[in-house]
Amino acid sequence: MKPELLIIDDDEEIRSQMKWALVDDYSIHMAGDRASALEQFQSKQPAVILLDLGLPPHPASPEEGLAILSELTSLDRRVKVIVITGQNEKEVALKAVDQGAYDFLCKPLQLDELKILLKRSYRMTSLERENEELRERLQSKGFEDMLGACPQIQGLYASIRKVATTDASVLIIGESGTGKEMAAVAIHRSSPRKEGPFIAINCGAIPENLLESELFGHEKGSFTGAHTQRMGRLEMASGGVVFLDEIGEMSLPLQVKLLRFLQERKIERVGGRSLISVDVRVLAASNKNLLEAVQQGQFREDLYYRLAVVVLKLPPLRERGSDLELLSRAFLSRFSKELGRGSLKLSPEAIDAIRHHSWPGNIRELQNRLRRAVIMAEDSRITPEDLELGAAPIMARNLPLKDAREAVEREMVLQALRNNDGKISRAAAELGISRPTFYELMEKLGIKKEVDTVPE
Ligand SMILES: Nc1ncnc2c1ncn2[C@@H]1O[C@H](COP(=O)(O)OP(=O)(O)OP(=O)(O)O)[C@@H](O)[C@H]1O
Ligand SMILES: [Mg+2]
Question: Which residues of 163-193 are buried (b: 16+ CB within 10 A; e: fewer)?
Answer without folding.
Answer: bbeeeebbbbbbbebbbbbbbbbbbbebbeb
